[in-house]
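Quick log. Single chain, no ligands specified.
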Amino acid sequence: MLRGLTTVSFQTTDLPAAKRWYTEVLGLEPYFDTPAYLEWRIGDYQHELGILDSAYLGEVGTRPTNEQAGPAGTLVYWHVDDVEAAVARLVELGATLLEAPRNFGHDFIGASVVDPFGNVLGVMQNPHYLEVLAERS
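-> predicted structure:
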């Protein structure tokens, strides 16, 4: 039934600031850029990261404000080669550490930050990701 990650969508009250921040984090401009929504294709499998201007939430659903609910969104982990280096760079760019790097067991090392817009962003060294990547070669 579930065949793979397609798009992770975050929300923000400041879409221009989110565009600048994620463009800096990812090192590329969004391929899809509208006044309501941005989207990047990133990584080895060209997964999609979208940012929705929360002014448009009424069209796609609602959620409590960050002040009521804490960090927003679902925790999705993205594979990185070095969790500690990735977290350090994200924090340097303005994210706040949520979960310090730790070993989840079986060589899965992960951490999470809250981006400047209240969304949780997870990073992980995932041995299965590397195995699949090696099989593709």
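The longest strand covers residues 96-105.
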